[in-house]
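Entry:
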Amino acid sequence: MKVRVLVSLVSAVLAPLILTACQGGGSTGTNTSILTKIGTDPASVVAGASFSDSIRVQVIDGSSNPKSGVSVAFAVTAGGGTVTPATVITDANGKAAAKFMTGTTMGTNTATATVTGLPAVTFSAATRFWSSASIGATYPLHSVWGTSASDVWAVGNVGTILHYNGTSWSSVSAGTMRYLWSVWASSASDVWAVGEFGTTLHYNGTSWSSVSIGTTQPLFAVWGTSTSDVWAVGSAGTILHYNGTSWSSASSATTQPLYGVGGTSASDVWAVACGGTILHYNGTSWSSASIGTIPCLFSVWGSSPSDVWAVGENDLDASGLMLHYDGASWSSVSIGTTSMLWRVWGSSASDVWAVGDRGFLHYNGTSWAAASSVTPLNSVWGSSSSDVWAVGGCYFATDLCGTVFHGSPAG
């Protein structure tokens, strides 16, 4: 899969570069040569697959005549990637061109075009992990999950269910008009979706069907470790468990609406709510965990029992909130955003994504940083660090409904 890259090259016309050379007949004079960029820079490109003539220059003399036979050297100087060929001789029109393929990580790529004796001309490319995907949805999407790069599900308002087969997204009949808040899958033939009024749907590899689980409470999240270990949480502290055969109610330590559930194993499960509520399941029972703050938490994800993240908003000022559990206690983490966060997911302890009202945040194992997009997003999931999906949209008049972003840097 390829990542879409936003490229912003330095200027439409580069400043003249002056070359002083000796003229024939033993006399000396000034022959002014100018190196300029030609053509229009593309608005975006796909990383990993270079685009033709992405770096284009022309050399002319002081009388605006093209200079052929001039050697132009191209090279990447920062950010990774490649430029090919490395050396190009200007043609009869004084032109030389090379292909620039940016690196696969977020940041700034730079490349240079150099003529002997002249300062290097620098080209700058700002790379972005995410690109928008066309799915044709007309309603907000609240959750995304899958089992592989070619088996991804997204659910949303009025019974919206979409499936990605590795090539394209398509709409799938849900048999309901209820809002669906969460989807989770253990395999291509075992997918669960939950929503308002206790709506619970199951996909068996062929079709979706409604399942009665004994509650009419809104269910906001579903997650599990296997086909016989699935949790669903919702309003009034509702916690339900599926053992592979049937759903049953579990004793809850809160009456707060539970918005998120996740964990690292069957004996290490977390559920989060507002009012500073975090619950933990140790394989036998649920208990409350102390966090010392009063946040509203919407999602939880962990790479190990000593590396768990929870996201939401601060009840006091509605700013974005990030908490981390190190195996002993929860603590607040500075993330530099004032917008609330809805979901968190990662492929490893050093590759974690959080999404919210103003787009993406990424954790590299050391610190959090804002990524691209200011589109409201509700959920994030990936099959690997190089295949990640995020969904949302439709909260403001300027938003695109059924927004889907795909992150897929070249490997």
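The chain has a mean pLDDT of 82.
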